[in-house]
Amino acid sequence: MKILYFSNFKKAFESVIKEDKDYIFVRHKLKRGILIKTHYHKIANEWLLIDKGKFEMQLEGKKQIFNLKNQVSVILFPKNRKHGFKAISSVSYFVIRNKKDSNFYKSN
Known about the structure:
Structural class: mainly beta
Strand content: over 45%
Shape: globular
Radius of gyration: 13 Å
Distance between the termini: 22 Å
Helix content: under 10%
CATH topology: Jelly Rolls
Order of helices and strands: EHEEEEEEE
Low-confidence stretches: none
CATH class: Mainly Beta
Mean pLDDT: 92
CATH architecture: Sandwich
Number of domains: 1
């Protein structure tokens, strides 16, 4: 998991979108306690852009808690790396993928 911090969303988006190509762009709003199950993408890198809220990120079994207040974080999940998300508070964030890809869920 690679994490960068920016003062605003414009700079954060420019750090991800560097080429003229089609990107997949999704906005998520999650209530406290919502869990995005561990998954991965076979061919797409995925970036999460978020500026406030408390949440837990997982990458390959390692967990990290964030408590952001008006500082934009860009978190990179490289393709084929298992990752998940848990909203500890209500959060709103953007997801960008560099290719169209499906979610593949971790098998138990």
